[in-house]
Amino acid sequence: MTGSAPTSLSGAQLSTSSALPALSARERVVDLLQLRFADDCLSLDEFERRVAVAYQAKTVGELDSLVADLAPATVQATVPEHGRIVTILSNNERNGAMPVPRRLEIVAVLGNVELDMSDATFASGVTEIEISAVLGNVEITVPFGIRVESAGNAFLGNFDYKAANIIGYEGDAERVVRITGHAVFSSVEIGAAPSRSLRRPDDAPRRLS
Known about the structure:
Elements: H1 23-38, H2 44-56, H3 60-67, H4 75-78, E1 82-88, E2 91-94, E3 103-109, E4 112-116, E5 125-134, E6 137-143, E7 146-155, E8 158-160, E9 172-184, E10 187-193, E11 206-207
Parallel strand pairs: 1-3, 2-4, 3-5, 4-6, 5-9, 6-10, 7-9, 8-10
Antiparallel strand pairs: 10-11
Helix pairs in contact: 1-2, 1-3
């Protein structure tokens, strides 16, 4: 198991700048810590300590030091190009640290899909999510700070979203989630939430505002 993080800046480099780190930089560090914890490279106590420090770091250099002894992240290579979730007359709920395909199709026919992506890994650039809901329900939760573009349509239903950024959270300039599709006699709701590991028990996803 790995002990305390060294202060050298080798390994997964972010920047030597002393500027306040962006939310995306913090999330990249947490993604790598999660991967290395899953690989048994970090003890639970050390993992929790580093994650706490990552969200309290005042400079990018402090973030660098948390992953300096770990291998560079390979998040980009783990993100699939295409994925599909199909629910017919059933219920499908997903959450946790999962890679989100660059293009994801969601189909709900007389069914329910609840997709909590607050702990998910997104590729840099645009992630496209296309929703087709007929007499169904689709609820999507994205991480706070990530930019959302939505162009969904509804017929005798709702396709609810608001602006792309959450007040009080720094925007992620590198990743965009573009949501399109239609809701026919259906409900589609797009909300945002912090990582599940950071939520209080009474926290619920918030609509984008």
